[in-house]
Amino acid sequence: MINSKFYPFFIALVLSILFFIIYILLGNQGVILSLEPNENIGDISRWCERVSGSIFREPSNALSNIGFMILGLLMFWVLGKDIKSNNSNQFTGLNSISILYAGAAIFLGPGSLLMHGTHTEWGEWADNLSMIMYIIIPWLLNIKEMGRWPLKTFFSSYFLIVFVYAVTRWLFGSELGINLDLFGLSIGLWVISETLFRFWSPLFRWISGFIGFLVAAVFGIFPAEIFLNFNEFWWVLLFWIPAIFSHHPPRVKRDYSPWFYLGMGSYVLAFVIWLQGYPNTPFCYPDSIIQPHAIWHLMTAFSTWCFFKFFRTEKKLI
Question: Quick one: pLDDT band at residue 4, thresholds 50, 70, 90?
Answer without folding.
Answer: confident
